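(Fold this chain)
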Amino acid sequence: MTHATRLLAAAAVFVLGGMTVAEAANCEVTHWWTSGGEAAAVKVFADSFNALGGDKWVDGAIGGSGDTARPIIISRIMGGNPPCATQFNPGKDADDLIAAGLMQDLTDLATKEKWHDIVRPKSQIDGCTKDGKVYCVPVNLHSAQWMWINRHVYEDAGLTPPKNWDDVVAAAPKLKAKGILPLSAAQGWPVLLLLTDAILPGVGGLDLWKKVYVDHDPAAAAGPEMKKVFVAMDQARKMVDPQTIVPQWNDAVSLVITGKAGANVMGDWAQGEFQVAKMVAGKDYDCLPGLGIHPMLNTGGDVFFFPKSKDATVTAAQLKMASMMISKPVQVAFNLKKGSLPIRADVDLSQADDCMKKGLKILEDPNNILPTGAQVMQRDTVNQIRDLYNEFFTNSAMTVDQAQASFIDILKNAPK
């Protein structure tokens, strides 16, 4: 019996030991996990659920990104054609659905299984709780502040693999001379991640990020420290020829894996792509949190909601699925494939690789943790910032001062 099979069998025993098997239900699960590493992680969930017997996981993957999938999912739920379960990110996206009474209340299950005691950091279960009731199950901790380095690219070019952002910038001319992209990039939200989630806290520091994103402080946004951030953003765009920007985040990661680019800034989910490519952390590639300058992580991730159903069979299947997703063996198996950190601290992490160990070490100090933009800002404000950053990144005519001025205006008008 393989290790994966043992985990799935243990998961089945864990969940079935505490719940009653109902009639079978076909449970469609909507999500936007479609890359190689993501598909491997989803399979852990699907196999674990199917191993319980009776109910069946029906995969409802939506191509593209969360920005593409969320409106489709919300429209289906509002329109009376909900899936059995659906992925969301922590934040405010499901608030209206909860207020409309369209989401399953998981409070009894959460109380029975003591989710408030086992989930860490506490903010993750708090994000699933509205008016004292639990409406979603957190399944992982994802962070965006990672820079991925192909060690062989730099070594073959006669360079020491970078240890931080400044090293990447310094090595850029030599890589360009060899026809290698110093930094790969993808369209849309990956640019927002690069500039907001990585460069801003990595170059500017955690305090500046909080002043700007949490406090919406125009003075901080207009200050010299924020100017340094926009200068670093300018460095980033100068390393990326707009003609080399690829459609999807995993395409940009693939350029690093295949040696066509030296570095990429992407969330820890990129780890799954390196694993699929059979590359070893610390040997073939490096993962640098906080751009190697200010090691810190945000506590984003993924949660699953379960839209209400009038069918008791579906409701029973939903509760089984929620319990399975947060169970110890599934948490280990899923997160090892996903590249993320388990949502609970009481699991066996003996198989954790170099990158997961770095992340766990950072999480030990609460001062190293920051929220995601979507957790502290309305989605409309996040989208306005995304549009500004994408314009700045691809339009060399926009100056640093112009971009900073536009950013200040967005903050001044942002609802708190």
Summary: Confidence is low (pLDDT under 50) at residues 1-5, 7-22.
